């Protein structure tokens, strides 16, 4: 069938149109995918075109025969004013903005607008005073041609009531919980002087904001501005009302303990951290002042936490309370909301209250001021979130809550009522700049193939494959990458595919250069540090593998890192110059921690939300940072990374409008440079060899032949123009000369590089005030028992401390009067005073410090000029005693230290250990009394005998959070009281009669720990690990850290790593092969009995246990085998001697018995043959009489 000429022309026209469209798409510059900051242009270059509202809306049909009609939106724009914005009405012609304002003036003859303003949509709005709102509303209701949307009543009522304080300039309480300024000043005056001296002016203003609102506020300051310190000060003001509950992510529990001990004038026992249900504060005999718990543990202990009364609740990183579209919130969030509903003072902390949408903030605000945003979350979403129905790919309709409207009004409402927010650029102008650079990676086929292959297997299988030396070569040869694979790559696959390009970029970083060149490393020590963020464990493993192979010291924090290891990693990264890199999971460590020692931040994977990225990068860019922070964002070209980046920018604009307001809202993420890095198929280590098959060029300055433009730089002038998102290519090229001429871009030739080529002097701004002094003492309490507290007059105690801190060369009290207590959570040393004859108990001085702070003071001879210091640790007269205590404490085993926690101590510590009460069943050395040669105690023998009047009952409960129910037996007395499963004494805890967990079957934690240790070798090993952390007590090898470092390495690299860091283990072939094949804790270290079981060391406590690496354990076991062999031989010889002696004794006895029997027979025969004759001289009369008597009564046998 032939086509007509007309059809041919239409086909040709369609073909030409398609070619033109393809040409335009091919000419599209990569910069359009990643926006950069615009250059400021004049109005002459870009004339403003008036916007016709409603004309460009899809589906908008104008009907000329209908009258012109418009609608106005009334919304609050400042604490004392509101604006009226005209908008088009669907289906009606829009008269235009000038006409709308003219008609409004006719409708409102008695109300004069104060001024005009521009709204976010681009139109204009007239502004009126808030006091004229009722008049404007009445006039609009009379008009039929003007539709209007009024201000929500709850919003208007709250802002109108709070506006009186704004207008008068003085704080006017308007709710029952609000406090007047007189009371606020009184509370602030009770704060310790050290804390007041350390606070910056804006922090003091934040404290006043919270106190004025009765301790119910949201402190939403930018990251790094000291929100924790403000919350601690607010909580201290209400500490007399009761206990304080701090809810935070699990990684921040030790950080909170550090801050509380540093600033709170309290004892270490006043702070309690919850790590499991065995740490339930309801089971403690003495209630602590502060309880720190994680979100998850609060959910597990929901029932008991609700039964207790709390004076203040602090919720750190409160954006975890994000709102769900479902009717019921998740269980963890619901548990926190239930506890908060019963607390009078609630302080929320978050630098990003809303992570990705305004809808997320509802739970937080409704918690502080119920009903402020509406009756429920759906009413709030209808008012401020622009809810709409969306059709998904499966044809199902769902409600979309990601939008936002009336955001300026929402921001004014929050700031006037419960939220205070300050930005770093407003209050910390001295803070160095933060510079972002996008590195676009051109993925190769091998990268894509490896990503698909790695993601298709499980974690265990992937780990096994990663250890196979031939696995990487197998992936590199893969070429079966189908078209469209780039677009279909998942979030994790994109991260894995970017590893190769990242390694190429990282190989030229000064950190790696210093590690590869020992000479440079010796000259330039501690030059730079870097934080690398990623989301998936497989990506983190790949980064760790590369960093480890380069020999660079690093720390890693992810979801599997133990709580104490996380805190230790942060301290090590901050203080140790050898640790150069921190590898961190963005969800596990992207918030709440201080990593200001880093200068470079890398995002290998884009975070899920924009605020998550801002939170993570501000781990380095915060108060205390003295250098500019370079941020490198890796994005894979032509993948979903590009659309993900655009989505992050869109969500950031909505969220920042809610929290920052109209003028400070962030339109998009500012980026100063975009570079493209093409991943090479073949990659050599940096050194004498040249990196081949790679190219890196900068989009703003043309192509370059090396990786230099992607590398970090240190200096950027403040006046240097930055690139704005959405700039045209011509404008970017116009600035390219300026940017390339700046000292930030360093060109490196293709030769062996040195660190000096990368080093540029930093434009270091004025130093920010660093860490302050330790907490001063304002009030004191001592204890009724040695650990408990007894009240002391505040004025008397303060004056006494003032005398102690007076500058004086002589000690104000005897050195021997000092007592010390070490915190079990932070290791801080708290000081006490006990004067002989006057103090019956040690009196707390409320001064504490870290041991490294004392070491920093130098020797006693060098401290002579510091005698006038305010603190005892700065006085050389006391410093010798403090140093002696630190040395004595460090020489103790962790098991011994555990026994001394919670007690004021004096030197020597060996005497303190002698004063401890001995266990009922064990000696001071942890041995079972009477000794035992069994490794563990049978279940039926571990408990004490059941009282005669008690009976056994069966109890069903869970032994863990996700474990199934198990059946246990427990004794119950005749008084219907449950008895402890170990000691058979009555249980008095709150869950005794209705136990939920296995711990509830015991009277206290000591019985629970002893039961577990004696009946389970696994529990014994776990408890030992909690104390010694897998460090060998003989050779000091950190076996736990060794296992962590080995897991991501290949087999060959594992062998080299063990030979380098654990040579003793490497010398044992069988042990080495086990550890290489399966690196786990059991193949690295063992729990060893100090006094072995065969000597009676069985069924022992932790005092008789120690951690030994497999090599030391092998040597100890071999020595014990030899000893047992000698003992066995000696015992065998003794046994043989005994047996021989016994045999000889038996033979001699047999011979003697035979002789005796023979002699007896002979005697009997002689007696039978002998005849006595009466009257014979051989016998007397008696004998004859007796014989005759016997003969008469004897019957003679005829046979004889």
From TrEMBL:
GO process terms (BP): DNA repair; replication fork processing
GO cellular component annotations of the record: nuclear replication fork
Domain of life: Eukaryota
UniProt keyword terms in alphabetical order: Hydrolase
Keyword presence, Ribosomal protein: no
Helicase C-terminal domain mapped to chain residues: 507-670
Keyword Hydrolase: yes
One annotated GO molecular function: hydrolase activity
Name under which the protein is recorded: DNA annealing helicase and endonuclease ZRANB3
Species in which this protein is naturally found: Kalanchoe fedtschenkoi
């Amino acid at each position: 069938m032939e086509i007509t000429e007309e059809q041919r022309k239409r086909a040709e026209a369609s073909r030409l149109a398609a070619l033109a469209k393809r040409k335009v798409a091919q000419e599209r510059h990569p910069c359009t995918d990643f926006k950069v900051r615009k250059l400021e242009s004049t109005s002459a270059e870009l004339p403003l075109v008036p916007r016709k509202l409603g004309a460009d809306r899809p589906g908008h049909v104008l009907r000329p025969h209908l009258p012109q009609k418009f609608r106005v939106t009334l919304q609050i724009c400042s604490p004392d004013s509101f604006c009226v914005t005209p908008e088009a009405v669907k289906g009606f012609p829009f008269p235009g903005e000038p006409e709308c304002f003219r008609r409004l003036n006719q409708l409102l003859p008695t109300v004069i607008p104060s001024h005009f303003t521009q709204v976010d949509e681009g139109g204009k709005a007239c502004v009126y005073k808030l006091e004229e709102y009722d008049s404007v509303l009445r006039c609009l209701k009379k008009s039929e041609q003007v539709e209007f949307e009024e201000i929500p009543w709850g919003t208007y009522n709250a802002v109108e009531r709070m506006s009186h304080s704004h207008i008068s300039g003085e704080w006017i309480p308007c709710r029952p919980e609000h406090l007047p300024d007189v009371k606020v000043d009184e509370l602030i005056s009770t704060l310790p002087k050290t804390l007041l001296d350390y606070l910056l002016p804006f922090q003091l203003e934040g404290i006043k904001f919270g106190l004025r609102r009765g301790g119910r506020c949201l402190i939403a300051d930018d990251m790094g501005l000291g929100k924790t310190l403000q919350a601690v000060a607010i909580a201290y003001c209400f500490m007399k009302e009761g206990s304080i509950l701090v809810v935070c992510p699990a990684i921040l529990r030790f950080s909170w303990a550090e801050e509380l001990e540093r600033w709170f004038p309290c004892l270490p026992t006043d702070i309690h951290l919850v790590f499991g249900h065995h740490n339930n504060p309801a089971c403690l005999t003495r209630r602590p002042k502060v309880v720190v718990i994680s979100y998850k543990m609060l959910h597990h202990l929901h029932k008991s936490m609700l039964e207790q009364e709390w004076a203040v609740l602090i919720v750190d990183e409160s954006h975890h309370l994000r709102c769900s579209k479902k009717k019921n919130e998740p269980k963890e969030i619901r548990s926190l909301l239930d506890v908060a509903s019963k607390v009078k003072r609630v302080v929320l902390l978050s630098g990003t209250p809303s992570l990705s949408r305004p809808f997320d903030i509802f739970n937080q605000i409704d918690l502080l001021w119920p009903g402020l945003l509406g009756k429920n979350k759906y009413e709030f979403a209808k008012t401020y979130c622009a809810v709409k129905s969306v059709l998904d790919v499966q044809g199902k309709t769902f409600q979309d809550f990601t939008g936002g409207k009336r955001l300026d009004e929402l921001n004014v409402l929050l700031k006037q009522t419960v939220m205070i927010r300050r930005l770093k650029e407003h209050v910390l102008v001295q803070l160095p700049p933060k510079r972002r650079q996008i590195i676009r990676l051109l993925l190769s086929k091998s990268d894509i193939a490896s990503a698909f292959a790695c993601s298709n297997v499980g974690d265990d299988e992937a780990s096994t494959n990663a250890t196979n030396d031939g696995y990487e070569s197998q992936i590199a040869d893969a070429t079966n990458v189908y078209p469209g694979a780039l677009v279909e790559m998942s979030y994790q696959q994109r991260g894995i595919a970017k590893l190769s390009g990242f390694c190429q970029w990282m190989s030229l970083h000064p950190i790696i250069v210093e590690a590869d060149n020992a000479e440079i490393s010796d000259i330039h020590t501690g030059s730079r540090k870097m934080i690398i963020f990623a989301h998936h464990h497989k990506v983190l493993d790949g980064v760790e593998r590369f960093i480890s192979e380069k020999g660079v010291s690093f720390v890693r924090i992810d979801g599997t890192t133990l709580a104490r290891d996380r805190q230790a990693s942060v301290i090590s990264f901050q203080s140790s110059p050898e640790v150069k890199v921190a590898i961190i999971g963005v969800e596990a460590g992207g918030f709440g921690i201080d990593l200001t020692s880093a200068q470079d931040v890398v995002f290998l994977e884009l975070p899920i939300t924009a605020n998550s990225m801002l939170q993570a990068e501000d781990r380095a860019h915060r108060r205390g940072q003295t250098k500019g922070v370079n941020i490198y964002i890796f994005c894979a070209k032509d993948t979903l990374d590009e659309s993900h980046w655009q989505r992050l920018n869109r969500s950031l604009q909505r969220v920042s409008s809610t929290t920052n307001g109209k003028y400070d809202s962030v339109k998009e993420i500012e980026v100063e440079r975009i570079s493209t890095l093409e991943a090479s198929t073949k990659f050599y280590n940096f050194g004498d060899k040249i990196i081949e098959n790679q190219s890196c060029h900068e989009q703003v300055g043309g192509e370059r032949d090396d990786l230099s433009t992607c590398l970090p730089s240190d200096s950027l002038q403040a006046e240097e123009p930055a690139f704005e998102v959405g700039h045209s290519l011509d404008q970017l090229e116009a600035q390219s000369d300026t940017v390339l001429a700046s000292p930030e871009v360093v060109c490196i030739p293709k030769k062996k590089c040195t660190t000096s080529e990368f080093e540029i002097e930093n434009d270091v701004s004025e130093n920010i005030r660093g860490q302050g002094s330790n907490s001063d003492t304002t009030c004191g309490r001592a204890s009724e028992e040695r650990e408990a507290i007894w009240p002391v007059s505040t004025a008397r105690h303060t004056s006494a401390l003032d005398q102690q801190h007076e500058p004086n060369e002589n000690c104000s009290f005897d050195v021997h009067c000092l007592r010390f207590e070490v915190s079990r959570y932070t290791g801080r040393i708290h000081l006490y005073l006990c004067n002989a004859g006057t103090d019956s108990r040690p009196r707390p001085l409320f001064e504490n410090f870290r041991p490294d702070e004392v070491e920093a003071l130098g020797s006693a001879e060098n401290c002579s000029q510091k005698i006038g210091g305010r603190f005892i640790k700065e006085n050389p007269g006391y410093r010798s005693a403090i140093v002696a205590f630190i040395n004595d404490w460090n020489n103790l085993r962790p098991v011994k230290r555990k026994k001394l926690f919670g007690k004021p101590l004096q030197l020597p510590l060996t005497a303190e250990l002698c004063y401890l009460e001995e266990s009922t069943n064990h000696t001071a050395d942890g041995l079972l009394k009477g000794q035992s040669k069994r490794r563990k105690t049978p279940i039926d023998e571990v408990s004490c005998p059941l009282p005669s009047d008690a009976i056994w009952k069966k109890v069903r409960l869970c032994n863990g959070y996700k474990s199934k129910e198990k059946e246990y037996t427990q004794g119950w007395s005749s008084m219907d009281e449950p008895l402890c499963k170990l000691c058979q004494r009555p249980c008095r805890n709150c869950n005794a009669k209705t136990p939920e967990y296995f711990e509830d079957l015991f009277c206290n934690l000591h019985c629970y720990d002893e039961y577990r240790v004696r009946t389970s070798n696994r529990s014994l090993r776990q408890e030992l690990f909690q104390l010694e952390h897998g460090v060998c007590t003989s050779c000091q090898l950190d076996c736990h850290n060794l296992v962590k470092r080995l897991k991501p390495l290949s087999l060959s690299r594992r062998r080299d790593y063990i030979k380098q860091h654990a040579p003793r283990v490497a010398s044992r072939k069988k042990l080495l092969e086990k550890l290489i094949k399966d690196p786990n804790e059991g193949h690295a270290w063992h729990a060893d009995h100090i006094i072995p079981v065969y000597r009676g060391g069985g069924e022992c406590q932790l005092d008789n246990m120690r951690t030994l690496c497999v090599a030391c354990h092998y040597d100890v076991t071999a020595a014990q085998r030899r000893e047992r062999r000698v003992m066995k031989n000696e015992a065998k010889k003794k046994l043989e001697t005994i047996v021989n002696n016994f045999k000889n004794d038996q033979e001699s006895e047999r011979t003697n018995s035979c002789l005796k029997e023979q002699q007896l027979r002979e005697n009997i025969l002689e007696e039978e043959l002998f005849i006595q004759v009466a009257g014979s001289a051989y016998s007397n009369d008696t004998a004859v009489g007796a014989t005759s008597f016997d003969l008469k009564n004897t019957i003679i046998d005829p046979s004889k």
